Known about the structure:
Elements: E1 2-8, H1 11-20, H2 22-27, E2 32-33, E3 40-48, H3 54-66, E4 71-81, E5 89-94, H4 98-113, E6 126-131, H5 138-150, E7 154-159, E8 161-170, E9 173-183
Antiparallel strand pairs: 1-3, 1-8, 2-6, 4-5, 4-7, 5-6, 8-9
Helix pairs in contact: 3-4
Amino acid sequence: MRLFLAINLPADTRREIADATAPLRDSAPELGWVREPLLHLTLKFLGEQPAERLEEIQGAVAGVAGRHRELVMALGGIGAFPNFRRARVVWMGVAQEPRLELLHHDVEVACDALGVEMDGRPFRPHLTLARVRSNPSEERMRLLARAAKKTTYTADVVIRSIDVMQSELTAGGSQYTTLLSAALRSG
């Protein structure tokens, strides 16, 4: 099973993001835009895992979730990795928040204990909006960058759980299934 750990967004927030970013999709329709139901924040990509490890993964994720209280995640701003001229990914930003950083760190440590290698890159929380699969023209990317600057959407989202997600690649694109959800402490 191809697994990852995510913070899933409420349906109304996903709808608001899709509405707010429609001008981006219009300015560069050839990009691989993430469908509205799939918008999420990835905490950790686990890759291919045998089904027998699911219980062990669930225990590790539940342990991390039980040590953290619910927190607010601030969304807003559009950018690209590494930049709009050479974009590979177009994203919506997630404000750096110490409690989110600590949650991510604890997820990394728990996954390392399971034998899933730590990611050596700094945590840059974001929602992936699109993947760039081809080489769009410079003009197309300038249009996209201009549309990004005009996107003013912001929202605060309460993080209530860490979800263990299965990703299946199909002819119609990726399909995500929530296998397990570990609740953060309320309050």
